[in-house]
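Training component of the fellowship. As part of building independent skills, the fellow (R.M.) carried out the full modelling exercise for a liganded target. The chosen ligand was heme C. The inputs are recorded below so that the supervisory panel can assess the work.
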Amino acid sequence: MRRSMLSVAFGLPLVLLFTGCGKLSTASFENDVHPIMQKHCVECHLPGGAGFEASGFLVDSYASVMKGTKFGPVVVSGDALSSSLYRLVAGEVDASIQMPHGKDPISTEEIAVIEKWIEQGARDN
Ligand code: HEC
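Fellow's submitted model of the complex:
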């Protein structure tokens, strides 16, 4: 009896964790946002890559993402719609400058994670 109560108590949060992936209550830079950038952005936004050479935007760490391009920040904490990082991936800009450059847009789930992370303050979490 005691044993089964325990497994319910521990099993339920695990199930929620796995089924709730698309609708995270808190978006984490390290666990959610950075993996998206490693998948879709890093090939061009690292030293020697076309995106980095053109804009100075690096995606290797929280600090470099927050630093932005050679022209300035691309993240406005708490305001996704004012953040060019969000606008570029969400299709809020002309297709010719949408990111990832010249490729299919990232998924709506991935866009939602980036939006949520910025809206929640773009923290180093
Ligand atoms: C195939 C190469 C490529 C990929 C992949 C890519 N980029 Fe870029 N990125 C570029 C190039 C080239 C530029 C500079 C030209 C421009 O501004 O349109 C650029 C510029 C940028 C800029 C600066 C725009 C500005 O206003 O100056 C940001 C921010 C950016 N990319 C974010 C991203 C993000 C986020 C991803 C992943 C979702 C990504 N990029 C994926 C090539 C790429």
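The panel noted the following from the submitted structure. The mean pLDDT is 89. The CA atoms of residues 44 and 73 lie 18 Å apart.
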